[in-house]
Amino acid sequence: MNEVLAYAVGAASLFGVVAPNSGNQSILVEYGTAEQKEKWLIPLIEGQLQSGFSMTEPDVAGSDPRSMRTTAVRDGDEWVINGHKWFTSNGLAADFLIVTCRTEDPDGAGASTTRMTQIIVPTDTPGVNIVRGINVWGRRSDHCEIIYDDVRVPVENQLGRRGSGHQAAQDRLGAGRVFHRMNSIGQMWRSFDLMVERAKEREVHGGYSRPNSSCRGSSPTVTSTSRLPGS
Ligand SMILES: Cc1cc2nc3c(=O)[nH]c(=O)nc-3n(C[C@H](O)[C@H](O)[C@H](O)COP(=O)(O)OP(=O)(O)OC[C@H]3O[C@@H](n4cnc5c(N)ncnc54)[C@H](O)[C@@H]3O)c2cc1C
């Protein structure tokens, strides 16, 4: 499905299957309470809200999410979040962020995969400082650097049970990696078909390119008319 949608410009967005919203939807479906689904998931699916997923940090290796340092500490009925993230995609547009926080003692008992909790943070919460969109390949982006400075959210914003954040991230990212590749394949097929169309119409040395049966377009999953004349 992702491959087919990626073939048409804007279709993935139209059908609401773009990162990071789609991955966040899957977390909310799996880990959200009925109230969280009502408040965050439904508006996200309907396109009324935008979201981001805030896990990677500049000071530790992103490829090892167990090493994240951002903390969330309970204070009464609130979580108090402090930390430094970057590459939070969609950060400039997001209404809320799902933030990976260390809620358990880093040296305490228990497996290293049970020390994180995902917490929903509305971006207009005091202490959420969106520093900048980081340049990617020389261009400005909305993959944001964010500082969380004594950010307070109600404990109801915790997703799933305490310590389930690592598993939630893996659930989300595992499927997301496959979706990204499907998107790339769909975009590749569109580019290839456009190239074939262009080759059919382009005049070179007073004539069209010669038919070449080795040059064919069309994705196996997308019906396309891309064929060289006579091929
Ligand atoms: C366009 C873009 C969008 C992103 N969006 C988001 C987002 O929305 N939310 C979010 O939280 N993050 C996001 N990220 C961050 C992304 O998840 C991280 O970049 C990724 O996890 C890698 O982490 P790192 O950049 O810290 O690299 P590192 O973990 O420092 O890795 C650097 C290099 O070292 C290699 N390496 C690491 N450890 C080892 C090892 N033990 N042995 C051998 N080689 C190793 C890696 O393979 C890599 O080549 C985004 C990144 C990009 C580029």
Description:
This protein is of the alpha+beta class and 231 residues long. The protein has one domain (2-180): Butyryl-CoA Dehydrogenase, subunit A, domain 2. Helices cover 30% and strands 25% of the residues. The chain has helices at residues 2-7, 11-14, 21-31, 34-45, 165-201, and strands spanning 51-54, 71-75, 78-88, 96-102, 116-122, 128-133, 144-154, 158-159, 203-204, 207-208. A hairpin with a 2-residue loop joins strand 2 (71-75) and strand 3 (78-88). 32% of the residues are buried. Residues 20, 53-56, 61-63, 87-89, 136, 143 line the site of flavin-adenine dinucleotide.
Summarize the structure.
This protein is α+β, with helices and mostly antiparallel strands and 231 residues long. Helix content is 30%, strand content 25%.
CATH topology: Butyryl-CoA Dehydrogenase, subunit A, domain 2
Helix content: 25-40%
Total domains: 1
Largest sheet entry: 4 strands, mixed
Using only CA atoms, what is the Rg? 22 Å
Bound molecules: flavin-adenine dinucleotide
pLDDT < 50 stretches: 222-231
CATH superfamily membership: Butyryl-CoA Dehydrogenase, subunit A, domain 2
Q: How many helices does DSSP assign? A: 5
**Strand percent estimate:** 15-25%
Overall mean pLDDT stands at 89
Strand order of the largest sheet: 1-4-5-8
Shape: elongated
CATH architecture: Beta Barrel
* Tally of strands: 10
Order of helices and strands: HHHHEEEEEEEEHEE
- Which class in CATH terms? Mainly Beta
User: What structural class do the secondary elements suggest?
Assistant: alpha+beta
**Terminal CA distance:** 29 Å
